[in-house]
Every structure is written in structure tokens, then in C-alpha cells.
């Protein structure tokens, strides 16, 4: 019992030490999908951590689901300790959604999201503007 109390105090002590050392939680720069996307194109967004202390752990989500490399037309690259790119290699009917980059370090986390909404329908209508020759 005394041992676990001691251990507990030790934990609190080291936590305080971390806080005193001034470790900062991550802060992600907002990202935005291009406004002119349609089926068949490719696109990418970049998740850049502008503030906070290393090491960081990156996670990408589409709606609530974690994005896994193996699942088809995505690829995720960790460029360096504070940058990750989400590539969508071929936009299709299932690409629309709310994409989130979440970054965690030892003292906190941050996340930024953007909604990908393709304009396929609009392009289709625009190209049929009644000019028949
Ligand atoms: C996208 O997802 C994030 C994180 O779950 C949420 O905070 C945000 O409100 C969502 N945006 C839209 C437009 O649904
Ligand atoms: C639609 O109209 C624009 C100009 O108003 C024209 O340049 C274009 O060729 C037209 N598109 C078609 C498919 O007729």
C-alpha cells in the first residue's frame, strides 16, 4: 500500500515536472480542399503542426472512421515530424465527406477538419447550355 502511494506521488511529481518544463500541445494549421473537385481528379491536403513539442502522432479520419492506407484510393505520407499529407488518388462517388487530421503528443491533441464536396453535377449541367450547332 505504501509502495503504491509512493508510486502515485512519483507519477504526480513527474507530471508536474513535464508541465513545469513547459511542453506545449500540438497546434495544427487549418487545411482546405480545393473548391473545384470532380470525379476522376486527384487531390491532397496537408496537415502541418505549427506549434507544440515533439514527438507527434498523426491520425486521419473520414467522417468518424480512421483512414487506413490499405483501404483503396488513399495514401498517407508522413513527410517529417510535423507534416503529413493525405493524398486521394482518384476522386469517386464515395470521396465526399468530412476529413480530419488529429495530432497527439504527450500533453494534448489538436484536430482540424474540412469537407470535401465534389461538383460533378454542376459541371455536367453547365456543359449542356442549349447551344446546338
Ligand atoms: C467535421 O468533423 C469534425 C470532427 O469530428 C467536427 O468537429 C466538425 O463539426 C465536422 N464538420 C462538419 C461540417 O460536419
Ligand atoms: C456553353 O456556352 C459557352 C458560352 O456561353 C460556350 O463557350 C460553350 O461552348 C457552350 N458549351 C456547349 C457544350 O455548348
From TrEMBL:
Q: Which UniProt keywords apply?
A: Signal
Q: What residue range is the signal peptide? A: 1-22
Among InterPro entries, the record links this protein to: Ig-like_dom, Ig-like_dom_sf, Ig-like_fold, Ig_I-set, Ig_sub2
The UniProt record lists the keyword ATP-binding: no
Q: Which residues form the Ig-like domain?
A: 26-117
Q: What is this protein called?
A: Titin
Q: Which organism is it from?
A: Nephila pilipes (Giant wood spider)
Taxonomic placement: Eukaryota, Metazoa, Ecdysozoa, Arthropoda, Chelicerata
Gene behind this protein: Ttn_2
